[in-house]
Amino acid sequence: MSGFVLTKDQRDLKRLAAEFGKQVMLPAAKEYDLLGETPLEIYKQAVEIGFASVTLPAEYGGLGLDMTTQCLLTEELSRWEAGITNALGASSLASKPIMIAGSPAQKQYAVDMIQSGHLAAFGLTEPDAGSDAAALKTTAVRRDGGYVLNGRKCFITNAPYASFFVIFAKTQKNIGTHGITAFLVEADRPGVSVGRHEDKMGLRLSAAADVILENVFVPEENRLGEEGKGFVIAMKTLDASRAEVAAAAVGIAQSALDQSVEYTKNRICFGKPISKLQAVQFMLADMEIQTQAARSLVYHAAELIDNGLPYGLMCAAAKCMAGDTAMKVTTDAVQIFSGYGYMRDYPIEKLMRDAKLFQIFEGTNQIQRVVVSGALLR
Amino acid sequence: MKILVCVKQVPDTTEIKIDPVTNTLIRTGVPSIMNPFDAYAVEQALRLKEAAGGTVSVVSMGPPQAMSILTDALAMGADEAHLITDRRFGGSDTLATSYILSCAVRQLGPFDVILCGKQAIDGDTGQVGPEMAEHLGIAQVTYVSQLRPDGDRLEAVREHPDRQEILSVALPAVITVVKGEERPRFETIRGRLKANRQEIGILDREALPVEDEKIGLTGSPTKVKRTFTPERHAECVWVEGESAKDQAKALCQALSRAHVI
Ligand SMILES: Cc1cc2nc3c(=O)[nH]c(=O)nc-3n(C[C@H](O)[C@H](O)[C@H](O)COP(=O)(O)OP(=O)(O)OC[C@H]3O[C@@H](n4cnc5c(N)ncnc54)[C@H](O)[C@@H]3O)c2cc1C
Ligand SMILES: Cc1cc2nc3c(=O)[nH]c(=O)nc-3n(C[C@H](O)[C@H](O)[C@H](O)COP(=O)(O)OP(=O)(O)OC[C@H]3O[C@@H](n4cnc5c(N)ncnc54)[C@H](O)[C@@H]3O)c2cc1C
Questions:
Q1: B128 Cα nearest atom in ligand 2
Q2: Which stretches of B204-245 are assigned E, i.e. beta strand?
């Protein structure tokens, strides 16, 4: 299904996401946005409904649904509250390298943990290795039937609450990306600690922090895939997760648009609603056009994934377009609400803060352009 | 424990419009939902099942579209669902509705507990549950907010405007529920996908042992002349009198004048 003409199942699940988003997630937004914490009870309730199980493989007890359905649900949840949606997304992101390269036992572990409400985190970025992820310095040295990990990861979503991490580390120096290996690291292993809870601009209902690894021993069975394949696993993971991230950005844009349309009908200036002003009407039209265009790319990318077709370029295009659109549309929404848009007592400024991250994480939008042009010029 | 929940499809609005000419509800153009009290009844049923084991069945009488609220109940976790539908059941008032539902209970049962909402937000009479209990000749407890299994009985908390009553009821019984503290649960994705593929039993006139003169318009003695919201007013009358005996007498006379006794 293309994501435009929905099946009955998809319609029903989208409605379920809307009910949950509206009745449970949205009411928590204000309080937890100020606190900068994840409402864990709500996260767990979302897990019980199945929002963290959508694409986990059915053979391990997940729902085994397609990426289109995942994107539909992510978009809908994000429309109500993007931070909690992002906490769910980060656990999903951490599960991906395991589903790509893990052993059956590792897969079963990840599915069981995530479906029982544990959070998980994906640890690639380091203080000196963001866009240039291959520059990472964390090391994994073979010892006694396993590895000893040392290093520091930063900006890791869900880190403060995570029960396990997927950590990318160098098993061999001076051979670039070929020296990187992926590991499954349980949070309770001796030597694992989590840094200060970052005070973020937006998406404050998901938390990010450093993950510090000091002489952390993991047995060999915690290695994901072969030695030296870590970078490929990370890139495959990000390729596939970009559609989901893009869907969340579209949800934010849609929320800004919906609220703007209502507001313009009620805000009176010069004796009439501002919706009667063509300057405002055209802003709304552009917001709609951009949001729909971004959505089209998202579901196109999801359709490619679902059909086993090459999707790298489309996912990067969708992520870039959706992130830029969310930023543009939420900025316009603040403009339409103006003074009320700028005030924290109203819900619009949060959307703009939330949107900004979508131009930064899971590869900045510059890096998406690097991916797209790289595919064109290959 | 075998549990049955009666659910009714109602228009999704608290503002019901009534056709001034026919005195009937205008139903076109309004999306339909499960009667909100019935969603609470489903929640109570699922909790009873979790506490005492057993099965939860749901039944609704209505047009084929009412199938969707049965699927909703299945998605919440009910085990099976039946739709009572037949043109000949159309036009039934509360008496005929409760009669047909009680026949369905006999057909599908026996059940230990039959749960209803306290009232439907469209018809609003609150009569179907109690009338079913009468048709079936079994106990009833209305306005229940909490239910607990208690051996072969149920403990029920019954809500009054100013107090609660805790009752122990022998089974089988009809229970009508109010909006308790426990909100109806969200369906799960898995529950929804399963429900969308689950078959719903159809009970028509042929499938039910009903008497034709008790169903549909023929079986419905109620004629709606007018609907209105009665004004509630309370006034305090001081009963005067020299002695307690005089006061009691005056009170009896006043009550008798008001046709209370
Ligand atoms: C809230 C939040 C949550 C995050 N969650 C996670 C997580 O869960 N797991 C994880 O591993 N990481 C996570 N990250 C890290 C995120 O992916 C990185 O911040 C991102 O990849 C950018 O890296 P950087 O911040 O180091 O920026 P830098 O790489 O230092 O980039 C700085 C600027 O230079 C530009 N630039 C760099 N290289 C190029 C190039 N080749 N061409 C063009 N422009 C370039 C960038 O686009 C950017 O504008 C998170 C980040 C944030 C802010
Ligand atoms: C004053 C009045 C006006 C009416 N107006 C109309 C009208 O305009 N249009 C029209 O079509 N009908 C009308 N009816 C018929 C009415 O909708 C039916 O009698 C209805 O089946 C039951 O009445 P209720 O809605 O008051 O239910 P209530 O007695 O308030 O319902 C209590 C509970 O009984 C159960 N229940 C009730 N009905 C069903 C059902 N069909 N299937 C399963 N469980 C059920 C539910 O658990 C519900 O919560 C009217 C009836 C009356 C008395």
A1: 29
A2: none
Q: Which residues pair with A273 in a beta bridge?
A: A268
> Of the ligands numbered here, which is closest to the C-alpha atom of A201?
1
Q: What is the pLDDT of residues B124-180, one digit of tens each?
A: 899 999 999 999 999 999 999 999 999 899 999 999 988 999 999 999 999 999 998
Residue B14 has which token pair?
């608290």
Residues 25-54 of A with CB under 8 A from B: 45, 48-51, 53-54
Active-site annotation of A, residues: 362
A363 lines ligand 1 (CB under 6 A): yes
CATH class of A8-118: mainly alpha
What does pLDDT average to in each consecutive run of 10 residues of chain A (378 residues)?
77 96 97 96 98 97 97 98 98 97 97 98 96 95 96 97 98 93 98 95 97 97 96 94 97 98 96 96 98 97 95 96 98 97 95 98 96 93
Atom 38 in ligand 2: which residue has the minimum CA distance? B8
Q: Given CB atoms, is A13 within the 8 Å cutoff of chain B? A: yes
Answer whether B40's CB lies under 8 Å from B117's CB: yes
CATH of A232-377 given 3.20.20.70, 3.30.565.10, 3.50.50.60, 1.20.140.10: 1.20.140.10
Tell me how far apart the alpha carbons of residues B86 and B199 are, in angstroms, rounded to a whole number.
Answer: 18
Domain B2-214 sits in CATH 3.40.50.620? yes
Query: Are B189 and A20 inside 8 Å of each other by CB?
Result: no
Cα B247 to Cα B236, B243, B253, B256, B259: the distances in Å are 15, 6, 10, 14, 18
Taking the model in full, what pTM does it have?
0.90
Give CA–CA dist A79/B157, Å, rounded: 40
Please state the ipTM of this predicted complex: 0.93
Residue spans in chain A of domains classed CATH 2.40.110.10: 120-228
Helical axes A348-357 vs A312-342, angle rounded to 10°: 150
Q: What is the helix (H) or strand (E) element at residue B39, kind and residue range?
A: helix B36-52
For ligand 1, whether the C-beta of A129 sits within 6 Å is no
Give the residue from A146, A17, A140 showing the smallest Cα distance to A80: A17
Q: How far apart are CA A93 and CA A89, in angstroms?
A: 6
Residue-wise pLDDT for B51-91, tens only, equals: 999 999 999 999 999 999 999 999 999 999 999 999 999 88
Which residues in chain A are classed under CATH 1.10.540.10? Answer: 8-118
Strand order in the sheet with B139-150: B164-170, B153-159, B139-150, B173-177, B113-117, B2-6, B55-61, B80-84, B201-203
Residue boundaries of the structural domains of chain B: 2-214, 234-261
Which of B34, B76, B186, B196 has the most A C-beta neighbours within 10 Å, making it the best mutation to test the interface with A? B186
Ligand number nearest CA of B8 is: 2
Of B186, B190, B196, the CB nearest to A19: B186
Output the residue whose Cα is nearest ligand 1's atom 7. A156
Residue A169: closest CA among A115, A240, A217: A217
Reduced 3-state DSSP string for B48-97: HHHHHCCEEEEEEECCHHHHHHHHHHHHHCCCEEEEECCHHHCCCCHHHH
The amino acid at B159: E
The dotted CATH code for A120-228 is 2.40.110.10
Q: Check: CB of residue A214 under 8 Å from CB of residue A193.
A: yes
